[in-house]
Design brief:
This protein is of the alpha+beta class. The chain is built from 6 helices and 18 strands. A 7-stranded antiparallel β-sheet has the order 7-2-3-6-5-4-8, with no helix packed on it. The chain has a 5-stranded mixed β-sheet with strand order 9-14-13-12-11, with no helix packed on it. A 3-stranded antiparallel β-sheet has the order 1-15-10, with no helix packed on it.
Length: 339
Amino acid sequence: MSSTSQPTTFSDLYTDLLNRMRADSSATATIAQAKRYINTALQDVHLGQEYKFPWAERRTTLRTQSDYTTGTIAVTQGSATVTGSSTTWNTANAFGVANVRPNGKMVFSGSRSPYTVRSVESDTSLTLTELFSDTTLASGSSYTYYEDEYDLATDFLRPVDMQTFSDELEIRIISRTEFRRRYPNNTIPGSPRVACLLDYAPAGTTAPVRRARFAQPPDDYYRIPYAYITCNLAVNENGVTGPAMIGDKDEPIIPLRYRHALVFHAAYHWYRDKKDDSRSQEAKGEYVDLMSRMMMDVEVGAPRPRLEPRITPYVRSARTPWGRGRGRYDADGRFDRGD
């Protein structure tokens, strides 16, 4: 980094921190500590402002699956295997996904209790996650397959609007508790009207699995656009985003003009851990001042405070100048009187 330029990359940021701390920049442990403080600052900058910065907003589209009723089935009480006839469960639809997929739901004739699909072995055979507990259904029985849960973007942190999932389709967000209370079965497909956000345990990786659950379950291939806040706050030189900076050429998604705030926040943590309270508070003061100026930046198109006089009485008088026994008037009371 040039001695006169703004810190840009991860290397610039932690080097600037080391220089300010007068720390040994050749010690591996010291460099690792500086990197950790910078990444901590990157998270805290966004957390402290409820992730409302415009550069952290993303937009994508979720496509739902249509309900599926083709063919008939047979299933035996106490078995998890469902056998189909004239079904094409494992065949791809127009969007390149199978008609029936794991984690989807099935409702069988004579029952409103949904069963979850564990796996699909072929076009005519699938396995449920639990044993079938209702009365045995002979060949020729009807069924309905649907999906009410869909994976969100892999970098999804939280919705931009905490009350609405999609403005275009007017899908509101409700809590998981309210969703369970209002839609205990949620088995009748239709146009989605409400959603709740679900967090599942990681599967195969440490990344959490985040999904949206809709009521009613989609009965068609709906295109649902939604806006969200990303949890990927850094980008590498190849344009790949991630939750933290790792390589020296990685950059935070924060605009260049604000990035030095990370150094002051990291300095605050550094001094605090070294029990240098006075310098810690000085660094925190610099950081708070920078954050205040960042928050004061007015977004293009945002409303600004303004004075709006109450003009209703004047408009009413202009429309009915001779109403209520009053005449039109000017400064000396002679306007439009003919005298």
